[in-house]
Design brief:
This protein is mainly β and 97 residues long. 9% of the residues lie in helices and 34% in strands. The chain is elongated and about 45 Å long.
């Protein structure tokens, strides 16, 4: 994950063996390191400047590359909710290209 060309966090994953011509799913939930409030504010006010690249290899051959652009927004608390923790920068579903 990058914001304005600066690395925020990098991840490496390995898949086990899967059967040929099979359908498989994979879900990964991970934490991004805590970010300075100034960086979070900048991410909210500069949509699509946060990006990620995913590269998929079989052996040493690149078989797929996904690039995602993220749009974050300020999630303001509702009128009847005084919990200030809801006033955070939250991601919108990424745009894949």
């Amino acid at each position: 994950h990058y914001f304005r060309q600066q690395l925020i966090k990098s991840f490496d994953f390995s898949f086990g063996h899967t059967l040929a011509h099979s359908t498989n799913t994979w879900e990964l939930i991970y934490d991004v390191p805590p970010l300075d409030n100034n960086v979070l504010d900048a991410m909210c006010t500069h949509p699509y400047e946060t990006t990620s690249d995913s590269y998929y290899f079989v052996g040493d051959s690149l078989v797929m590359h996904n690039k995602a652009y993220y749009n974050f927004f300020l999630n303001s608390p509702s009128e009847d909710d005084s919990d200030e923790e809801d006033d955070i920068c939250a991601p919108v579903i990424p745009t894949l290209q």
